Amino acid sequence: MSNIAFIRLAGFATGVFANWAPNLFSYYTVHMRKFYKRYSYLKRPFLNSIWTACTFNLGPQTCCIAPPFFHSNIPISTNECRYSFTQYTAGGIFRWIEHGFQSEEAYFDSLSAEEVGRERAEARERWSRGSGYFSTLEELRAM
Fold it and tell me: Which spans are transmembrane here (predicted)?
């Protein structure tokens, strides 16, 4: 965690995220600000990163993941090793925050039948709302 190469990678990935998906980055920023304000005793893996978790794979692997942009499996030669560094935030953290820092069960138990219906309808459309956070090239050019 204190290795300068990983600190730089973490910051670089965050910068790429902020530049190429600014709407989604803003969503992360708002939610992570609330999360760390509520749980100030928790520490981010890297201070220059937006994500709450990371994984290092320092063994011979053929999988490289760089969320949320791409996932690829590329063959390597028998005399090569692949190392991966992945940063991520579990989707459940966003739901936890949006549900007032409570479990889904507790959240739904606190709602009226009408509110539950609205929430279930919104959940069915969540994928559409989520995909709307990705920027188009036209939006990026206009910025």
Answer: 6-30
- d(CA 66, CA 20) in angstroms, rounded, equals 14
Q: Which amino acid is at 31?
A: H
Q: What is the pTM of this model?
A: 0.78
Largest CA distance in the chain: 61
Q: Per-domain residue ranges for the chain?
A: 4-55+88-142
Question: What pLDDT tens digit does each residue of the chain (143 aa) get?
Answer: 899 999 999 999 999 999 999 999 999 999 999 999 999 999 899 999 999 999 887 776 544 444 444 555 567 788 877 777 889 999 899 999 999 999 999 999 999 999 999 988 988 888 888 888 888 899 989 98
